[in-house]
Fold this sequence. Notes:
The chain starts with a strand and ends with a strand. By secondary structure, the protein is of the alpha/beta class. The strands form 4 sheets. Strands 4-5-8-9-11-10 form a 6-stranded mixed beta sheet, with no helix packed on it. The chain has a 5-stranded mixed beta sheet with strand order 3-2-1-14-15. It has a two-stranded antiparallel sheet with strand order 6-7. It has helices at 21-35, 53-64, 81-90, 126-133, 156-159, 166-173; strands at 3-7, 40-44, 71-74, 99-102, 105-109, 114-115, 122-123, 141-146, 179-184, 192-195, 198-202, 209-210, 220-221, 226-233, 237-244. The site of fe (ii) ion has 7 residues, from loops.
Amino acid sequence: MDKIVQISDIHFCMKDKSHSSRKNLSLVLNKINGLYHEYILVLSGDLVMKADSAHYMALYQYIRAFTRNEIYAIPGNHDDIALMKKLAIQEEFFKIQDLLEIGINDIVFLDSSEKGEHLGGGKIDLAYFEAIKSKLRENSNKIIFIHHPPFKIGAEWFKKICLDNGDLLMKSLSEINNLKYLAYGHCHNYFIEERENTVFLSCPSSWVQFDHTEHHETKYDQQKEIGFNVFHLSDDISHETVTISVC
Length: 247
Ligand SMILES: [Fe+2]
């Protein structure tokens, strides 16, 4: 397997017919299938609009109609990680785990869904992260997937709902050898920056983007492209962000 596809912030809605989450997700999944047959799919949080079994199972069945590939999921602020773990044990469901080794690559799945100070914010359990870190192979190339960005980014209102203990996480990340990417969701938009040989990359929402030029309240940009990230694994790791127009 030499490809990981990241989809984020699906906000899957079962019933509301005017809600575009299902339609836009199908655009994304069709586009992925047009490009690749074999890939690992990662869902980086905010999977469903309502965190109950019915929504999670409906989303799982919906995606399964497009692909039989392996699917891993991490929770976002709209998710219920306890329920996701229960479904992963009891049903055919997305895989929930901390670490995946693919050849010379270590893929880390981080849970940031512990509630932050502000509604929508998040926190990680740093002691737990250190335990995961201790399992990483010294010379592997590494990607970390997490829902919340570990530093403040975007509109003023959004800066309040990034990772509460992001400073401590960033310090801990700096000790990791060959951390190539940290790929996050939550921001419903396109951001990329490189810090000390690590690319911090957002994944756009498969549903709708935020207008980060509006600083005082949450505003959606219905015109902006939806999209997904692709990571190509070889001796090194590279990425592309694929966009799809919804106008
Ligand atoms: Fe989110």
